[in-house]
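Action item from last week, closing it out:
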Amino acid sequence: MGQTSIGAVVLAGGKGTRMNSQVQKQYLTLAGKPLILHSLEVFEQSQVDKIVLVVGQGEKPWVDREILGPNGFRKISAVAEGGRERYHSVYAGLQALQGCDYVLIHDGARPLVTEEIISRAIQGALNYQACVVGMPVKDTIKKADPDGFAEESLDRRCLWQIQTPQAFSYSLIRTAYDWIMEKEERQAGITDDAMAVESYGQCGVKLVKGSYENLKVTTPEDMVIAEALLKKRDSLERR
């Protein structure tokens, strides 16, 4: 990447309430290792120069000992503790990530991210200052009214399901988050980083292709699917 510095914020602070498990989803065993390790290992091997891992309140000593210590990561420069909402955790990660020109923000609950997806996100940020990975939707999408009746069928040719990583000029995303964090009313409805940039209003966000396999593990069924996809990937790599 020459003199351009690329950082990453990897989020591992979610509660995972829909997993019906006493163990937070990012630490559940997936294909023989904690779920969070899958994405961390990919970022470690990618073009990214340094990584900030964001964990839940009070989890840092355990993560240092059980997740990071045994695995010899070279690029993790800091472990930050997140906050109540996702945007609080992202902001903590951005504050801990200093001296980068560009930053990728990734949900650690997406263990099937690849170096190719990361590379496309980086190139998108270099070209457009702000980009998100995602895929065109496959299904028909209907808008419902307040009573649960179909109100409108949306044109799926214009619809994408958004994934992570999302990649930005560091100065752009940091300024957008600084602006959002100044007033509580600006935080309403912010569910991803692109929305922070869109709300700030200084730059458009480019969509770049991720992968239909780049799923977010949210429910027990997702764990089954992710494990199958990882086993398929491992089998193909062994050939």
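Closing note: The helical segments are 35-44, 60-68, 86-96, 115-128, 170-182, 193-200, 220-238.
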